[in-house]
Amino acid sequence: SIANLQIRGGSATNGAGVYIVHNDYGDTLTVYLQNLYILGNLASDMGGGVYAYVANGDLKVSIEDSNISKNSATNYGGGIYLEGGTLNITGTTIEGNSASLAGGGIYTDDDTSLNVSNTIVKDNTSAGPGGGLLIGEKASITKSWIVNNRSSEEGGGIDLNDRLPVTMNLFASVVAYNHSQTKGGGLAIGS
Q1: What is the pTM of this model?
Q2: Distance of alpha carbon 111 from alpha carbon 165, whole angstroms
Q3: Cβ neighbours of residue 16 under 8 Å, at least 6 residues apart?
Q4: Using the 8-state DSSP alphabet, how is residue 185 labeled?
Q5: Which of 31, 83, 87, 158 has a CA between 20 and 30 Å from the CA of residue 59?
Q6: Measured between alpha carbons, how far is residue 104 from residues 31, 69, 80, 129 in Å?
Q7: Mind listing the pLDDT tens digit of every residue in the chain (191 residues)?
């Protein structure tokens, strides 16, 4: 568990703010990030604020009552990048992050599960799809606000990956004032 901490101004290839990798067959790694302020970190590849990747085993990451702002990634996941495992986000603000390829605020790749509740995703940008979020496989978004995000391609607010079957439940939330230069200002489903 990591709590009550500021992580600012870092730089790395992946995970300039927080880097989490799990590579243990048959084991589960559980990580709790609570009351963190992750600000102004720069990844030259993926995960400007937080990078989480599971090669083997299972990974469960929970982010609670935190602020992930003004981070950037040259490729994917300006705020958060997740590949494999489960990410739970509660009571958090994800704001002003940017990615050059996809997922300005949050990017989840194949074989992932994302659960978001009582969270604000706003003012994030992507030069590709998914200004606010790019959903790779499974997502549940409840009582959250996806507002004023921008993408140069599809899905200004939310983009659903068109390579795999994707499941998303969006409940009691607001998706507003998002912009795409091509398709799906608020939400893009398919290509």
Answers
A1: 0.96
A2: 11
A3: 10, 41, 42, 43, 47, 48, 49, 51, 71, 73
A4: S
A5: 158
A6: 23, 11, 8, 8
A7: 899 999 999 999 999 999 999 988 778 999 999 999 999 999 999 999 999 999 887 999 999 999 999 999 999 999 999 999 999 999 999 999 999 999 999 999 988 999 999 999 999 999 999 999 999 989 999 999 999 999 999 999 999 987 767 889 999 999 999 999 999 999 998 75
